[in-house]
Design goal:
The complex is a heterotrimer of chains A (559), B (314) and C (309). Chain A has 559 residues and is an alpha+beta fold. Chain A has 17 helices and 19 strands. Chain A has four domains: 1-52, no CATH class; 64-214, Alpha-Beta Complex (Dipeptide-binding Protein, domain 1); 231-304 and 532-557, D-Maltodextrin-Binding Protein, domain 2; 306-530, Dipeptide-binding Protein, domain 3. Chain A has helices at 2-20, 75-84, 132-143, 161-165, 195-198, 209-214, 269-277, 289-297, 326-334, 338-346, 369-373, 381-394, 413-430, 441-450, 468-471, 488-499, 503-520, and strands spanning 55-59, 89-91, 97-99, 102-107, 113-118, 176-180, 183-187, 231-237, 241-246, 260-264, 283-284, 303-316, 351-352, 406-410, 435-439, 455-461, 523-535, 539-540, 556-557. The chains are: A alpha+beta (559), B mainly alpha (314), C mainly alpha (309). At the A-C interface, helix 1, helix 7 and helix 14 of A face helix 2, helix 4, helix 6, helix 7 and helix 12 of C. Chain A: Residues 96-480 form the Solute-binding protein family domain.
């Protein structure tokens, strides 16, 4: 009997030992023959000799769901895509929208037809030429309802795009056409002032028609992945690492100083921060909030508060009493101390919200949009409390009724802190005792859509550099209008802003719209986002487009 | 050969009546539990453990009231203060008094741990015991059911329950947390008990009892349960920390108690970020108290085990 | 014996089916949907996605389809990742978790019972206190705190130990230690308790009085019998370790199965939830079966009765 026991035990141990001999890899490795040995280890100390490749090491928060531009869903995909692909236009280090794959473009007098002429020297990483047909193919593919791309709506500005995607039209009615290999003609539904910039967005990146048609799985492995940007995907160990290397076929490769970028895929912010501090990374974002606060206090030069256009806010469900009452909504907004939230709690250099449109967006004269609108929210406890109580009385409710009112937020330490602060501020300033409830993100979205909430945390990061990306959110039929705001006057103004070819008229409409929405206060804006990041002192040349993650394309390592 | 002994009558005398009490118990009569308590008291380490537990329970009741702060009041001029004369355990990221929050959190941790362990214990011992003494067929079915229950992902159950049971506004309540924890967690206890029972039920004394006509429940009550108490008690002293841990882990995943309420686990989780920026006290202090609770229950459990075991009686 | 095994396997299959069914309906009854997006996604696109993954069909129909695919060994496509199927993810994630788990188990099996036996042999003496204090530390600190502390104070100061990540043996060291503490302590305490009990039993006294040397008594009689309760928890313990601790995997940035599981629930990635759950269940069931068999081999009393019946 004893023997059989020993047999079982030792069997277990042998298995353990056997496997100890070889650590299983996170995935299939695909290495380019040109790979330098220095790229092998993520833990190589930063004392590489200068001859070796300049590889920037950083972390990409979570595994991309796809590295196919049409199927990308968010920043964890777009950060890699932004470095491996390039659209017709791109955002340069001066944050200007400049031609990328396009050499030049022409806009018709009615602002409806765009004709792009492509560069001559543009190639895919496999050597094929990038043609206008690739763009036509890519855009129509992204609109294909069969593909079910999450971001297809970014192409709805093209005539026939929405109809095709929603199954009401056909692909032939989508008015994007390659006139020849080098010329692409696009016709829009309505004048769209920001269409050029939109072509720098990842859903509008081209894909290699030949490759995609011959291999539907092309984007799943590094070995079959073909791209046209400054870098190309050379290794993708799923859920572990992504490696991109300089694309020698890229037309501007002379300006690209890095030989590549290594992304780890680790989602724990504390761990990645330790790795950055320990010298495993040269660059890191996002950072733990406590770390940002401390670096800011110490004026640590490695910390850079990247500008961002985004607004953090609370939805007030206007379909639920007492949030149907404007006075209640305004009262809540006026008693929220945004400056304290920004200075003491969020602590990442955020700016206390002054409206729904964040700083950084240019108006019709190229000046700061916010300057002309001014500050549309105020902190005034006395006035706010008075309004709030009045509104409450109008609805026949009492302060005690707020015990059943809940702030809904998606599970996250940062949201939890801010929600607790808001809860406490409203308790102190208004005497109401609101509850908190955290749920998974998917649940929050579902409940917002269903209107099953009272107050919910939300945020919006602009897709492009035009205030309409924020203003349109509260259009009565907007799919993101979770506050269920409904104002015909507002809708009218949004329509003008979306379709008018006259910049003055557009911006007047948007300013007016923002004033209206901040008068009615269907949402309580809290702050404007920033994106803090850390880079070692020897890293230069990183820039942060307002609507993108930091760009590493022209970065350099000076060691 | 005269080896005959002469026995005369006067060599014998009657035993005095007062000595003729063979039934008399000469040691002082001690009831089972007071005997356990007596022997437990002799175990110094266990008494330390018991003292710690009692102190923690006492402090979790009065601790939040001592220095006049509440667990939810925030003071933004006092964020991240290290322990000092006013805030004995410092303040957190929202300027709340950590001393108050720690004891408030200890209260919830203890409630969760003890309640969960009690429920696990009751279900586990009943289920495991029954399964062990039942016929093989019933035993098999019962164990399969236990396996099914145990294999359903815990997280799924917690999320589901927190949705089903949370009335509006309460979020994940204490009740839901404990329910979710015990819904699957009694299974290891049941398996352990069954294993012990299987081992013991063929032992000589239960065989003897059975042949004397004792019924199965009677054997279970009188022989098997007392004899399995040792390993089971050890298991309980591990279930309390396990439940406290499970709650802490759920906090780590954002499924713990609803803020601003706290448990020791959620406080430690909130303090994680502080470690990298020199606010280690925010994690160290809750961690110390978690460890103290664990220590207390563990050494108490060991002592109890020794005290309960009749075979270790001297 | 063969008959028993056969029956046991049939039972296991039924168990598995029950788990699949319960999990399937449980999962679909929790709120949230994998395709809800923050932002401007039009309803039509949302419905397209639902259709593409068959979520527009009635639940019983989805269940039948799922079972059919499962019989072919196909766990389906992940609803979040467009790169890998669920099978791919398990194939990739499991070896990682299993490696880590076995390393942890190895550590726990070497030190746990040894500490426990030592403690029992020297009850209430110095070695007892030392081993129990080690065991108590092991279970006193939750793994997310232990992991963070190990990174902060060990990995950052010891140059050959990397701070998180995966790839070489050195990456596995700290997480395996962190992962092993709990089972190690658990085993040590169980071992101590059952060992103490065994040492008080008559056959040990008999063996001693027969004049057997102390070491033979301990090795031949005490330890072998004391190890029984450990074996009974081993199945669960191993399956927990194999599937991985999501906390440790998250903190150390390890691409294992545990990480997938939490992600899949957060994302409501139905197919991945089912895949990981079923996979976990299979492992658990197989291990429990093995434990039962091991019990038969080890404890003669059980074996005899089972065969005798």
């Amino acid at each position: 009997m004893k023997r059989s026991f020993i047999v079982i035990m030792s069997l277990l141990l042998v298995i353990a030992l056997l496997i100890t001999g070889c650590v299983p890899k996170g995935g299939d490795e695909v290495k380019e023959p040109t790979d330098t040995p220095s790229t092998d280890s993520s833990a190589t100390p930063p004392s590489e000799s200068k001859k070796e490749a300049k590889i920037l090491r950083t972390n990409n928060g979570s595994e991309p769901g796809s590295l196919d531009p049409a199927l990308a869903q968010g920043t964890h995909e777009s950060w890699v895509l932004d470095h491996t692909f390039e659209g017709l236009m791109k955002i340069d280090p001066d944050l200007k929208v400049v031609p990328g794959m396009a050499e030049e473009y022409m806009i018709s007098d009615d602002s409806l037809t765009y004709t792009f002429t492509l560069r001559d020297d543009i190639k895919w990483s496999n050597g094929d030429s990038v043609t206008a047909h690739d763009f036509e193919f890519a855009w129509k593919r992204a609109l294909d309802p069969e593909l079910a791309s999450d971001y297809a709506h970014q192409l709805y500005y093209i005539k026939g795009g929405e109809a095709y995607n929603t199954g009401e039209g056909t692909v032939d009615d989508v008015l994007v056409k390659a006139l020849d290999d080098k010329t692409l003609e696009v016709t829009l539904e309505a004048p769209t002032a920001y269409f050029l910039e939109l072509t720098a967005f990842y859903t509008l990146y081209p894909v290699n028609k030949k490759v995609v048609e011959s291999d539907p799985d092309w984007a799943k492995n590094a070995s079959t992945h073909v791209s046209n940007g400054p870098f190309t995907l050379t290794e993708w160990e799923h859920n572990a690492t992504i490696k991109i290397r300089k694309n020698e076929n890229y037309y501007d490769s002379a300006s690209v100083k890095l030989d590549g970028v290594d992304f780890d895929i680790i989602d724990d912010e504390n761990t990645t921060w330790q790795k950055y501090e320990g010298g495993d990374y040269d660059f890191l974002t996002p950072l733990p909030q406590a770390v940002v606060a401390q670096m800011k206090d110490n004026n640590n030069p490695e910390l850079i508060i990247g500008a961002e256009v985004g607004t953090y806010y609370y939805n007030l469900n206007s379909k639920v009493k007492p949030f149907n009452n404007i006075k209640v909504r305004r009262g809540l907004s006026m008693t929220l101390d945004r400056q304290t939230i920004v200075d003491k709690i969020a602590q990442g250099g955020q700016i206390a919200a002054e409206g729904v449109v964040p700083f950084g967006l240019p108006d019709e004269n190229g000046k700061e949009y916010r300057d002309a609108v001014g500050k549309l929210v105020e902190y005034n406890v006395e006035e706010g409390k008075k309004l709030f109580l009045e509104g409450l009385a109008e609805e026949g409710m009492k302060i005690e009724d707020f015990k059943n009112i809940v702030i809904l937020y998606n599970t996250s330490e940062a949201h939890k802190k801010i929600a607790q602060a808001a809860q406490e501020m409203w308790r102190v300033n208004l005497g109401i005792e609101i509850q908190l409830e955290n749920v998974d993100f998917q649940v929050k979205l579902d409940r917002e859509k269903a209107g099953d909430y009272h107050i919910s945390r939300a945020g919006w990061i602009g897709d492009y550099m035009d205030p309409i990306t924020f203003i349109e959110l509260w259009e009565s039929n907007s799919s993101f209008n979770d506050a269920k705001y409904n104002s015909p006057e507002y809708d009218q103004l949004v329509k003008i802003a979306k379709t008018s070819p006259d910049p003055n008229e557009r911006f007047d409409a948007m300013r007016k719209a923002e004033q209206i929405v901040m008068e009615d206060m269907p949402i309580v804006p809290v702050y404007f986002y920033t994106q803090p990041y850390a880079q070692k002192s020897y890293v230069t040349g990183v820039y942060k487009p307002l609507v993108n993650y930091p760009k590493l394309t022209y970065a350099d390592i000076n060691k | 050969m005269d080896n005959q002994i002469n026995l005369s009558k006067d060599m014998f005398r009657p035993v005095p009546h007062e000595d003729r009490n063979p039934e008399k118990i000469r040691r002082p009569s001690i009831k089972y539990w007071s005997d356990v308590w007596r022997r437990l008291r002799q175990n110094k380490l266990s008494m330390v453990g018991l003292t710690i537990i009692l102190l923690m329970i006492l402090m979790s009741i009065i601790g939040p009231l001592i220095n006049g702060y509440s667990y939810f009041e925030q003071d933004y001029s006092k964020i991240n203060l290290h322990p000092n004369a006013i805030h004995w355990f410092g303040t957190d990221e929202l300027g709340r008094d950590q001393f108050t929050r720690i004891w408030f959190g200890a209260r919830y941790s203890l409630i969760i741990g003890i309640l969960a362990a009690t429920i696990d214990f009751i279900i586990g011992i009943l289920y495991g015991g029954l399964s062990g003494i039942a016929t093989r067929k019933v035993d098999n079915i019962m164990m399969r059911i236990a396996e099914v229950i145990y294999s359903i992902p815990y997280l799924l159950i917690v999320i589901l329950l927190s949705v089903v049971f949370s009335s509006e506004g309460s979020g994940t309540s204490l009740f839901v947390l404990i329910l979710a924890m015990t819904l699957t967690d009694w299974v290891p206890m049941a398996i352990l008990v069954r294993g012990q029972v299987l081992q013991l039920k063929e032992s000589e004394y239960s065989l003897a009892a059975e042949s004397l006509g004792a019924t199965k429940p009677w054997i279970l009550r009188k022989h098997i349960i007392p004899n399995t108490l040792g390993p089971i008690l050890v298991n309980i002293t591990l279930t309390i920390p396990r439940a406290i841990f499970a709650e802490a882990t759920l906090s780590f995943l954002g499924l713990g108690l609803q803020a601003p309420k706290s448990s020791l686990g959620s406080l430690a989780n909130d303090g994680l970020a502080g470690l990298a920026v020199g606010n280690g006290y925010q994690i160290i202090i809750p961690a110390i108290f978690i460890s103290l609770i664990m220590f207390g229950f563990n050494v108490l459990g060991d002592g109890l085990r020794d005290a309960l075991d009749p075979r270790l009686r001297k | 014996m063969k008959k028993y095994l056969f029956k046991r396997i049939i039972m296991s299959a039924i168990t598995l089916w029950a788990i699949i069914t319960i999990t399937f309906f449980l999962m679909h009854s929790i709120p949230g949907n994998p395709f809800r997006k923050e932002g401007k996604m039009p309803q039509v696109v949302y419905e397209n996605l639902q259709k593409k993954y068959g979520l527009d069909k009635p639940l019983p129909e989805q269940y039948i389809i799922y079972l059919k695919n499962l019989l072919k060994g196909d766990f389906g496509d992940s609803m979040k990742s467009k790169v890998e199927t669920v099978n791919d993810m398990i194939r990739r994630g499991f070896p990682v978790s299993a490696y880590l788990g076995l390393e942890a188990l190895f550590i726990a099996l070497i030190f746990g019972p040894a500490l426990g036996a030592l403690a029992a042999l020297y009850q209430n003496k110095f070695p007892d206190y030392i081993s129990m204090i080690i065991a108590i530390i092991g279970i006193s600190v939750p793994s997310f705190i232990m992991g963070t502390i190990l990174i902060q104070f060990v990995a950052k100061n010891v140059s050959w130990i990397p701070i998180g990540g995966w790839g070489e043996f050195k990456h596995t060291f700290l997480p395996a230690v962190a992962l092993s503490l709990m089972p190690l302590a658990y085993m040590a305490r169980l071992m101590r308790s059952s060992m103490l009990e065994i040492l008080g039993q008559d056959y040990i006294k008999t063996a001693k009085s027969k004049g057997l040397s102390k070491s033979i008594v301990i090795l031949k009689h005490a330890i072998r019998n004391a190890v029984l309760p450990i074996i009974s928890v081993l199945g669960t313990l191993i399956s927990n370790l194999l599937v991985g601790s999501f906390v440790i995997e998250k903190i150390f940035g390890i691409p294992g199965l545990g990480k997938f599981f939490v992600q899949s629930i957060n994302n409501r990635d139905y197919t991945l939830i089912m895949g990981t759950t079923i996979f976990y269940a299979i492992i658990l069931i197989v291990l429990l079966l093995l434990v039962d068999i091991a019990y038969i081999f080890i404890d003669p009393r059980i074996r005899l009765t089972k065969e005798g019946r």
